[in-house]
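Sample A.
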Amino acid sequence: MRVISKNVLLERSAKHPDARSALQVWLDTAERADWRSLEDIRRTFPSTDMVGPLAVFNIKGNRYRLIVRMAFHARKIYIKEFLTHGEYDKEFWKKWL
């Protein structure tokens, strides 16, 4: 998969250095993946959920949420938000729906 805006992801994660290694694992895995559906994603990341076109990944034991738009047909992943669990609960990320 091609991950769009991965530099933005790394910039946003700079204020959460404890998540950096988990995000790098996610990024490396996503770039090697051939995900065509949620079921494919869940083989690697079982707790992932889809909300419309958005995939929500739990990062670092559910402390953080990574929200991306999946374009399965184009084999692209668009980074939208990287949030703490508390920020995610405020639901501002839903603007991407």
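Sample B, a different protein:
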Amino acid sequence: MARTSNRFKNVIDDASRYTQSVLDDFSKGEIPDSIRRDFRDTYDFYVTDEERRHLAEMGRVKKSLWSTWYLVRGLIMRLSPPRRLMVLVAVILAWGDVLDGTQDTFLGFIALFFVLGLELKDKTMARAELQEGRAVQLAIMPASIPELDGWEVWIHSTPANDVGGDLVDHLRMEDNRLALTLGDVAGKGLPAALMAAKLQATLRAIAPDEAELSRRAAKLNRIIRRDGLPNRFISVLHAEIHPDSPVVRYINAGHHPPFLLHEDGLRELERGDPAVGLSVDSRFRAHETLMQENDLLVIYSDGVTEARNEIGRFYSDERFEELIRHCHGMSAKAVGERILDSVSDFVQTARQSDDLSLIIFRRLRPVDPPIHRTDGPGPSTSQEPA
């Protein structure tokens, strides 16, 4: 009897904690915000662009009715044929109860619940596989920020989904050079993540054997074009820096031009050549830019400038340029964190729409090489007393 009483008390306590947790979430506004965000994401997923244009021409009442129909139709049409049939049976059973007073509503509810369970099972299995894929992706990406004399480097990447299509990588080359890569695969999700992994493995394999950047990019393009997926391409910014040189050598294959921030202002570098994987005949040119002490080079993916807030507005190139224009003299890490904070403040509670990646490096004060004397000690500046 006492054991039953304790179990009942535990159930009451669990229910009380759950209720309090729900009330706390409501008081913080998290549940209403989450519901609004989920509804907006559902609307964007199931309603096509053509249907949205049709809805834009309607009044409020008519738009509500048609929006509901588009959502329901889009949901049903994405089900497999057997599950679509089960939903139809459930609707017929529920509707028959309304018309003739039969007690078939429960059977209709069971049918709908069964379809929901099947969809939830599929989603749970897919989510588990994506999480395993994310673990693999994190394992093959750099675990630390690279260090190089004469330079300060900062890297960052945040995927929009469980797995991302952006690649941020660095590779130590011979002669103490450091190669840095930011790649952005067209699209998102698992296919883009697999292409990003292919890009990383290919570039790491060919870079040590190909010192010339233009030939390195051409070889990379041929391999990705040969082994990649149809209609998939990758924008790539691949750069090299050396501790004893202020020159940055880089290839821009269809990527956003980097921004060079120096004491006199902000300058956008060359736009470069076609993206990797577009054509087997693409040609690539190596570029160079000179960086003075405290100059910053900002390499970014479109997840920065195309981040969207709750009403669908973009962060924009103009906002980004205005932000980094006043960052000269700051550390690479401080600039990167300033960019992330600015984007976060802009999007607020909106879901991340694209992978966001950054590579920032700053030229430090050159270290003077040690002086090696070969002719013995120099003349003394002191004099012996007479």
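Observation for Sample B: Residues 368-386 have pLDDT under 50 and may be disordered.
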